[in-house]
Amino acid sequence: MINSTNSHTILTGDRPTGPLHLGHYVGSLRQRVTLQDRYPQYVLIADLQGLTDNGSNPQKISQNIFEVMADYLAVGIDPAKTTICLQSALPALAELTMLYMNIVTVARVERNPTVKAEIAQKGFSRSLPTGFLVYPISQAADITAFKADRVPVGDDQLPMLEQTNEIVHKMNSLLPNPVLVPCQAMLSSVSRLPGIDGNAKMSKSLGNTLTLSASEDDISKAVHAMYTDPNHLRVSDPGQVEGNVVFTYLDAFHPDQAQVAALKEHYQRGGLGDRQCKQELEACLQALLSPIRERRQQFSADKAALMDILQAGTEKAHEVTQQTLSEVKRGLGLPVMF
Ligand code: ATP
Ligand code: MG
C-alpha cells in the first residue's frame, strides 16, 4: 500500500476534438494505465476547452465525447480505478477560472509559448476567441480543483503547468492557509510524437494523425507514405535515422528495442531498404492497434454504458471540485452558501 508521504493525485485530460491518436497513446494514455494501479487518478474530458476554438461548431465537441471515452476504455483505462469526468458538468471549474482570471495579467497569457504557437497555427489574428486566449487559466482551474500534484502530459503542456503553479502560489498567498497544491508534469519517454507527415507534433488540428481506431488499411497506407531519409535513394546507400519518422516510430512503439538498434545500425551502414523498415513498423503498429480497435468497437456500441460511467465519475468529481472551490472562497472571505 502507498503511504501518505509518497502518494500522489493524478489529473489529465483530453479535448474531445476528435478520436485519440498515437501521440496521445505514447504521450499520456500509456502512463495513465500504469498510474491507475498506484494512485487516485482523474481523467477529464475537456469539452469546454475543446469549444474555445470550436465555438461555432459545438456538434464536433459533443459528438467526440463518447469517441474519446471509447478510446480510454479500449486502451485499458479502467473506470473502477480511474475517475472519468466531464468538464462542462463541473461548475466549480468555471467558477475557479473566474477567480483565477483576476490574478493573471493579459500580458502573462499572451506570453504562453504553446498558446502563441497555436494562435499562429490556427491563423486567428483578430478573430481570436477570448476563451482560447485564457484556456491555460481554465486548465489551471482543472488541475487545482482536484488538488492534483502529478500530471502525465506531452511536452506541449509544460507552459500550462508553469502557469498553473504561478496561479497556485499567487492564490495561496491571498488565503490565510494554503489551499492549492503545486503540480509537476510526468513526461513520458516520448513526450512529443511527430505527425505521420513528419511535422513536429501529431495533432488532431494538424490532420497528421494515426488514430487508435484506424483500420488495418489506414495503418498500412500511413506507414508506407511516411517520410524517410530523402537522400537514401538506393538500398545500398547509407541512410540517416535522425529525423527519419519511421525510426522515430520504431523507437516509440517497437517492443524489442535491441532489434531497433540493429535495424538502425544496418540502415546507417547501408544495405537496408526503407520498405523493409516500414514493414517492420507496420507489423508492430498492426499488433498494437488491432486489439484496441476491437475493444473500442465493443465499447462504442453501448452508449448507455458509457454514459453511466461518465455520470458516476462526474458525480464523484463534482464533490471533490466543489470542496476545493469552497475552501478557496472561504479563504477569500466570500460567503459559501451551498
Ligand atoms: P488538438 O489539436 O485539438 O489540440 P491534440 O491532438 O493536441 O488535439 P489534446 O487533446 O490537446 O490533443 O492533448 C491531450 C494530451 O495528449 C496532452 O497531454 C498532450 O500533451 C498529449 N499529446 C497530444 N499530442 C501529442 C503528441 N503528438 N505527442 C505526445 N503527447 C501528445
Ligand atoms: Mg492540443
From TrEMBL:
InterPro entries recorded: aa-tRNA-synth_I_CS (IPR001412), aa-tRNA-synth_Ic (IPR002305), Rossmann-like_a/b/a_fold (IPR014729), Trp-tRNA-ligase (IPR002306), Trp-tRNA_synthetase (IPR050203)
Keywords, comma-separated and alphabetical: Aminoacyl-tRNA synthetase, ATP-binding, Ligase, Nucleotide-binding, Protein biosynthesis
Catalytic activity, reaction form: tRNA(Trp) + L-tryptophan + ATP = L-tryptophyl-tRNA(Trp) + AMP + diphosphate + H(+)
One Gene Ontology term, aspect cellular component: cytosol
A Pfam entry, by short name: tRNA-synt_1b
Matches recorded under SUPFAM superfamilies: Nucleotidylyl transferase
Documented EC number(s): 6.1.1.2
Enzyme class, spelled out: ligase
PROSITE patterns on file: AA_TRNA_LIGASE_I
Listed GO MF terms: ATP binding; tryptophan-tRNA ligase activity
GO biological process terms held by the UniProt record: tryptophanyl-tRNA aminoacylation
Family to which this protein belongs: Belongs to the class-I aminoacyl-tRNA synthetase family.
Protein name, UniProt field: Tryptophan--tRNA ligase
